[in-house]
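Something for you to look into today, if you have time. Just paste the record in under my message, thanks.
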Amino acid sequence: MNLEPVELISLAALLHDIGKISQRAEIPIENKYNLEEYAPEKDGHYSYKHAAYTAEFLDWFVKEFKIESENEKTNLVNIASYHHKDIDEPFCKLIKYADHLASGFERTPQKEKSDYIKEQLISIFSSVSINNNQKNDYTFSLKPLSFDIEPQLKSENTPKDYEVLFNGLKADLQKLKGIENFDIFYDGLNYLLEKYAWCVPSSSFEVKADISLYDHLRVSAAFAAALYKYFEQSGKILQPDDTTSAFALIQGDFSGIQNFIFSKQGESNKFAAKILRARSFFVSLSTELVAYKIYKKLGLTKASVVMNAGGKFTILSHNAKDLKNIINEITDEVNNEFLKLNYGQTRFAIAHIELCGSDFLIDKNDKKSKFSQRYDELVKKLEEKKLKPVIKNFVFEDYLDSIKDGGICRICGNHPANLDTEDTPICEVCYRMKKIGENLVKNKFFAITTNETSSSIPIFSNYHLVFENKAENLKNALLAFEIGLEDEFRGFAKSKIAAYVPRLTQDEIDKYKDLDDVQGLKEYDIKPFSAIAKDAIKNDKGSDFLGVLKADVDNLGLIFARGFGENVSISKTVSLSRMLDFFFTGWLQNEIKTNFRSIYTVFSGGDDLFLIGPFNQIIELAKKINEHLRQYTKNEDFHLSCGIYFAKDKVPVYQMARQAEEILKKSKEIDGKNAITLFDRPMKWERFNEIMEIDLYNIFGKDKYISEGFKYSLFTYLEMIEKAQTSYFKTRDLLWKPLLIYNIYRNVSNLKSKEEKDFAIKNLLNLVDYFEKYKGDFLVPLSKYIYENRKGRS
């Protein structure tokens, strides 16, 4: 593999500390030259031995992947392994200073010394405290990244644990052979480093071990690429604490995500599931491509993208001479393309700030970091860009002429309907989205190319999307990813795109054959919303309603701004963003695929969540998400607000989204947030979990002796309780309790035996206690019970 200098530097930095894994595995060094050459010697002993282990690993790596070098100065082994020695070579200095920058600002001083092998990675969530409260340090076990990761109180790592990781990494690396495109190779390597090094402490000697080796390596790679490009531009190699504005942070945001995903305001709900899936995918894909355009234009590599989640990316770059013009040109180019999507309702905002090396370092005197303040500047600049967009097209002059012949697209209700698909006049944009939605569930891989073919799908600019089932067909693409959550690595990075959607089985096709949306569909086709709604009916009981869930993590901006106190850093910010994104794109998607297979993921990433499914499954999943977020973070500062809306399958999705968003706002309005709103009743999660444990099925005698009329009459008493607490109550409202007790006795009067009556009355009188305790909130379990126990009707 022939590498450009910036690629060589990025790769060397990404692997410069990889030897820490084999060192902690206590694998013997085979080539003693590596120890003598790369590990500094002091008082007759070698220090920083991991550098020698890195050289040992890279000796193997260079041979396996045929990485060529012109001379010793451009030798990957030397560049990566000399970072603890004073070598007067530019490339070696760049890696050393990148490591210094990444290490210097990421490590929090800690008095206790520890055994560097036994020490476990402290969860990044344990380092977050909004109110400066002391948190317990929870740690992660040493194992490959999986969906069931959960921090626990401290345990210990062993050399055997490290050996298992090291052997797994080397075995999977073999699957990268044959890939010549650096970006695709880097993505695959980066994916494997996350899989195997996410749980490895970067350092634990006299520091708090809350930064993983993986996050240290990838931030080091970003710094190294930026330092190299600044060196190329200025001829200067800057010391880490230099005050020259040599760096830049660039942040991009897909503004108007909801306007784009839910811009389906036509008269037809046809293809709704496919197009929703495609639009959500497009948000992630276009964010990836805009970042790609920027780092390629700046002469950087994929290493420079330090964050990319939820429609937002952050690039660590050098301060290029024409940086502002480059960003403006790309912003205009992308937004001109976005005009074609939905006439300017969706835009891409890009902002940047200039920084110096000392902005990333903790000051030696006051022990504070400037990074929090600087990062806050970037966030505010981006928000300003989003709120004050530069709009150049106020009128689309040819619009009326374009819709004269075919009218408006029946799907989106915006573009001219110039195509006819399955007897539905639609536009080119919706047709493209329909194709993407279909291919996402039929293929194993997708790639970006500039080569237009009969099967490729235009995205924007000259980029085309290609789907494939054979990996060997993608190695010459610009970017390539695997779709899905399967554990096996096949040579390509797995896309962090929430791609799970329910698919029809043959049994379901037979079961729902009378539904118009199911007729003509085949096994494994995306399950339409009408069939998803029917899944709420079990054993001929229930109501065919969809549950529409909208949720996000509370106070996340505050957490990123203040959560790490004075020791905030880009490494911690990157680590926290990645771990939160994994919760939504990793654990949650696997949970849905495994236990909630009828739930449709519209959007899940960053900290945002939008799901559609059978109403009863949505309620159960909401409880599970809240519960697992607490287990996953082990930190009370992290909590979720959620809103659930009930809808029929024919309701346009944009209306579902709008209603769910309004319901979510009610949860956010509760003091402290951390709430759920269901059946229009906002309440704290603790109260919700408690109230949902009430067993109405047994209280109602398993539906044997209570009429439907009695159940519905309970809503009247709940309404009386609510009114009795207001200034406009009526005297009758105060009599809810005797009226309820009377109604209970009257409804069991037809039971034959005294034992049956006494048993029924004892059960039903529990309602009085529950009504007094929960008041109007009791509407929530009562409504859920009625929806679930109707006699299989709509």
